Structures are given as C-alpha cells and as structure tokens.
Amino acid sequence: MERLPEPPHGPLTERERAALARLAECEAAADPRFARRLGGRPARRAGSVPWLVVGVLAVVGVALLVVPGVWVLAGVATAIIVVVPVALIAWALKQGDPPPRM
C-alpha cells in the first residue's frame, strides 16, 4: 500500500482551526461530558505521591512499634489484596465513561 506524505508540522491554519471549532461544537451538542473531557484535567501537584509513600511507611513503622508484627502483616496484606485494587478500580472508573449497563 502506498504511503501518503505527511502534512507539514507547524501551527494550524485558519481553515483547520475553523474545522476543529465546528467539530467541537457538534461534539459539545451531542455529548457535553465527552467535550469537557477533551479539554483535559488540571495537572496534579508534582510532589504529592512521594509524601503519600512517606506517610504510609511512617504509619507501618509506628504500627510495628505498637502492635504485634503478625497483626501489622495482616493489615498490610489486607491493604494490598483488597484496598489497593478497589481504589484503583474507583480511580479508573472516574477517568472515563462508566461501564455500559447490561
């Protein structure tokens, strides 16, 4: 199959901007939630995840000093097996459309 030449890279022309604006209007009328998602999300703060990790490690460290090790191990195992997957599924569902109903 013959490959088409790539368009030149650079800013959009007025005609392309007008076409995109018309497409955005049609999408906004047909599905406003989809059009909002195309706008993107605000950026997350860069340093929030390392502080979460430090907090979790601090809680586990204090728990090891206060509670017997077996109970801490059981709590960590429960978090890894149940809490983390549920949190990830909830986060993933918030990222896009809800699953279709059957």
Beta-strand residue fraction: under 5%
**What Rg, in angstroms, do the CA atoms define?**
24 Å
Mean pLDDT: 79
What is the N-to-C succession of helices and strands?
HHHH
Description:
The protein has about 100 residues and is an all-alpha fold. Helix 1 crosses helix 2 (about 30-40). The two termini are about 40 Å apart. The chain has helices at about 15-30, 30-40, 50-65, 70-95. It is built from 4 helices and no strands. It folds into 2 domains: about 10-40, no CATH class; about 45-100, no CATH class. It comes from Actinomycetospora straminea. Keywords: Membrane, Transmembrane, Transmembrane helix. Pfam families: DUF3040. This is DUF3040 family protein.
Short description:
The protein is mostly helical and 102 residues long.
Provide keyphrases for this structure.
elongated, 102 residues, 2 domains, mainly alpha
Helix-strand blueprint:
Blueprint (H helix, E strand, L loop, with lengths): L13 H17 L1 H7 L9 H19 L2 H27 L7
Helix pairs in contact: 1-2
Pfam families: DUF3040
Organism: Actinomycetospora straminea
Protein name: DUF3040 family protein
